[in-house]
Design a protein that fits this description.
Layout: H1 2-56, H2 63-79
Helix pairs in contact: 1-2
Amino acid sequence: MAAAEEHLRREVDEVLGPVWRRERRHARRRVAWATLGRVALGMAAIWVLSVVVDLVVGVAVPWLAFGVITALATVLAFANQPHVGD
């Protein structure tokens, strides 16, 4: 029985191999775009918070801080994203 199952698995992989690769590529792309979307929403929230702090308290956050925070958030988000199809 094990030989028949192994033969069936090889046949399925041979027929569907290109489709699985394409699906994994699309899944990785969707995960990447979702990750970038989360980073963008997080940065928008931080920007809104900084505008509110600037209006209420009068302390402005330097623009360089947004660049650094965005770079760090992007690197950390991609480092922690799930690996699709590996």
